[in-house]
Amino acid sequence: MDDRNMDTSSSPSFDVSHDHPKSIIHIDIDCFYAQVEMLKNPELRSQPLGIQQKNIVVTSNYEARKFGVTKCMLVTDALKVCPNLKLVNGEDLHDYRAASNKIFLLLQSWKCPVEKLGMDENFIDVTNLVQEKLKTNMDNITIPGHLYSEPSIDCPCGCHIRLKIASQIANEMRKRIYDDLGLTTCAGISHNKLLAKLICPLHKPNDQTTIYPEHGSSFMSTLPSVRTIPSIGTKTTEALISHKIISVRDLQEVPLDVIKEYFSSDMAVRLKNLSMGEDNTPVRQSGRPQSIGLEDSFKTVSVKSEVEEKFTALLQRLLILVGEDGRIPVSLRVTLRKKDVKRLSSHRESRQCQISSSLFTINSGSVSVTEGGQQKLMSIIMRLFNKLIDLTKPFHLTLVGLAFTKFQERMTGRGSIVNYLMNDLSVQSVLNITNDCDTSASSMDYSAASPSSSTTTDLSDAEVEPSPKKPKKVTWIAKRRCLSREDVASPSKLKVGELRLNSRELEKVSELRLNSRDKSLTPRASPARDMSETSDNLRDIAEGGVCDDCPSYVDKDVFNALPEEMKNELKAMWKNSSNSEMPRASTRNMNKSKPNTLLKYFVPQK
Ligand code: DCP
Ligand code: MG
Ligand code: MG
Question: Is residue 82 part of a domain?
Fold first, then answer.
């Protein structure tokens, strides 16, 4: 279907000599919170429904939208335009988060990088899958849903056929989300994230739109405000507006040199590129969040006991989230927003401190607080609060927040080997595993805004959290796909994504490692001694293996639990390393500069 009412001419500046190798899908759930509530209570389907957080309707179903109920409308205004609006409280995000995690997990089954953005959006880079499908007969394929504009040129790089295939994959994904989870979605398909995201809502709800690269800049020129571009935030928008650059077309037309007068050279180029629909930010596989937090905002609280009540409530909810996450927190942050009554302004302040992991216990992958642990946490929270507030003077708070900001480096932690084994991440080498699982905002900040007057989780990272995986079997499975003989001989070519372990297996390694850590810790007395022992271990590596099969630094319990294939690979690797690959100096540096190497994983640590 063609959108003839749009400005669909191919962009005059379009350069056919550029390749458009990627195929990116962006999926957004329709009226997300409202759909989750309608699934819980199907009677709501036939009524106009608003999801209320404090005095705001954060979203509404499409029935309510017909009456003019918009996102983030005041409840009073929403009821004026739609007196029959049924309101459901949406301050508890638990069910939304669970649905969000299910979608994320479902999308992982296509074995492509998936980047979760906020609660209801995901980018999927289907480039490789499209390439695979291209090898099969792909004649006469049609584009499901809408095509932004019919092709005006035949792009020599072959992106049109690739995007057609990608749009079929998007359709399959949307169908699966509907069949398995009962949720309708919209999708945008393009050769980059920017266009995929921006084209996605063109036909709402329950539909999809594909755009070819040659229409990128003409589509962008239809956007009324530069603010619509995801990585252009409030400050940049204000700066642009102050120079009379309001619409995306204004940004396209203003010469680069002029923008360079207001912004750094890099920023100016980036802004120009974005305005033309150009964006080369990668889809980054999402992993576990760096922190898990909750905030509560209110008009004003000026009494300590009330603050304590707020923190108690937040802590209780936060402990549920941590329980589901499955990692033991080791750092706690308290945030306050203080109101300066004289200046009528507010500002945030935070304090954080380490907390003992002994406050928590772990059982079947679920973390719970020990008896008395909650009280201890509350006293830590109030101590941090006392540091932030001078109680001898009056205070006025408009927000309190709590977040666990660091987690014990267990098997299931961010940056641990689990993430590499669980996700299909391409890494350069098992000797040099770098964390590709960055959950922080990418260079392109696509993060969604959250209303300030509601209880929300720490959207920056908490919402990218996939649900904890339930343990299944104890046996190891290490599946190798497409590894050539050369790959096996050279472990540095091994893709960690080839090794798929289920969570129980990972738990097992974790336990083994922790147990053996405990054992190796017993004789240690002081940090100084720890350090010297670590040096000794590294010396063993440098001197090559001292036992028959593996070097002495290797935790044998862990090694024995590995699948044979992996054992053999490691042995081959150690054999090679004793010849040439592992000189003394590089192994000594290994712990410092490559914190996530597989080898390091075998070294008993404190
Ligand atoms: N949300 C929120 N505060 C906002 C915007 C959104 O709490 N300011 C929540 C409610 C939404 C969910 O995030 O259901 C997803 O946001 P979307 O912008 O994708 O909005 P919806 O999914 O509700 O509607 P649409 O059909 O337009 O995507
Ligand atoms: Mg949505
Ligand atoms: Mg959204």
Answer: yes
Range of the domain at 548: 514-601
Within a domain: residue 435?
yes
Ligand 1 and 61: CB distance under 6 A:
no
By three-state DSSP, how is residue 403 classified? Answer: strand
pLDDT tens-digit map of 529-545: 222 222 222 222 222 22
CA of 121 to the centre of ligand 3 (A): 5
Is any atom of ligand 1 closer than 6 Å to the C-beta of 49? no
**Mean pLDDT of all residues in 100-108:** 95
Distance 322 CA to ligand 3 centre (A): 24
In angstroms, the CA 349 to CA 304 distance is 17
Q: In sequence order, what are the residues at sequence separation of 6 or more whose Cβ sits closer than 8 angstroms to the Cβ of residue 27?
A: 103, 107, 121, 122, 124, 170, 173, 174, 177, 185, 186, 187, 200
Is the same domain home to 298 and 430? no
- The predicted model scores a pTM of 0.62
Residue 19 pLDDT > 50: yes
For atom 3 of ligand 1, which residue has the closest CA? Answer: 450
350 Cα–ligand 3 center, Å: 29
Using alpha carbons, list the distances in angstroms from residue 8 to 125, 146, 228, 444, 516.
25, 13, 19, 26, 64
* 411, 336 Cβ separation under 8 angstroms: no
What is the total count of domains within the chain?
Answer: 5
Last residue of a domain, one of 465, 499, 533: 499
337-381 residue pLDDT tens: 998 877 777 889 999 999 999 999 988 778 899 989 999 999 999
- Give catalytic status of residue 63 as yes or no: no
Q: For residue range 560-569, list pLDDT tens digits in order.
A: 667 666 777 7
